[in-house]
Structure formats: C-alpha cells, structure tokens
Amino acid sequence: MIAHRTQAKAEQLLDRLGEIAARATGENLFSDIDALRHGVLTTAGQWCYLTPRLWRAFEMLEKHRGSPVDVDRLAAAVWPAAEPYAENSRRQLVLELRQALAGTRWAVKTWRLDNTAYELVAGRPGD
Question: What are residue 68's phi and psi, to 5 degrees?
C-alpha cells in the first residue's frame, strides 16, 4: 500500500517536472490538447471541441495548473472588460466547462477560500 502511494507520488512529480520543462521550451506536452482547434481528447479517443468562451476558461486554468484561480481572475480572462455578464454566469461557465470535460482526463476542482477558486486537475484514464 505504501509502495503504491510512493510510486503514484513519484509519477505525479515526474508529470509536473515534464510540464515545467515543456513550458520552458514552448512544447505542447499534452497530446490530448489541440490548442489550434480548441479541442480536448476524450478517453474514448474522440475530440471534444470547446466554444471560444470555454476554451479561454480552460486555457486560463491550464496555464495556472497546480494553483487555484480566483473566480474574479477567471472571469476577467473569459469576458472582456467591456462585455457585461451576470454574477451567476461565472458558476454557469464552470458548470459548462465541467460538462464539456466529462469523458476526458481533465476535471475542474473547486476551492473554497476567501473567495471561490477553481483548479484544473488531470488524471490518467481510469483513475
């Protein structure tokens, strides 16, 4: 049991180090993300294409992967300053993003801090 947890932690650390190296070199580490077409690969091998608004939210969360993103900061990345939005639009956006990512290895985790925050987490298929 302990060896399994240690191995899982080591794999997570190696994944994270690979992500950092990929960002530093500008490589697309994740073969399950198509940034050009705003798509995410499902575990069934089909592409799920996100709307521009959902893609901006996904991109913001992916850029800050490993850290919760405050809901106001997420909203600022998704909606231009001149574009008004209702308060419940932020919750609706995250709900729609979660629904769109269902069946992929990506999920959105909610953090309840001083203000609500969200984090993009990745798992391996079947986790």
Answer: -65, 140
Per-residue pLDDT of the chain (127 residues; tens, 9 = 90+): 566 667 666 666 666 666 565 555 444 556 889 988 999 999 899 999 999 999 999 999 999 988 999 988 999 999 877 676 777 888 899 999 999 999 999 999 999 877 889 999 987 544 4
Strand 33-34 to 39-41 pairing: antiparallel
From the list 125, 80, 92, the residue with the least C-alpha distance to 107 is: 125
Instruction: Give the list of residues 6+ apart from residue 71 with CB closer than 8 angstroms, or none.
Output: 90, 115, 116, 117, 118
Number of H helices, E strands in the chain: 4, 6
CA dihedral 86, 91, 96, 97 (to 10 degrees): 120
Q: Which domains does the chain have, with CATH numbers?
A: 51-122 (1.10.10.10)
Calculate the dihedral angle through the C-alpha atoms of 86, 66, 98, 5, rounding to the nearest 10 degrees.
Answer: -150
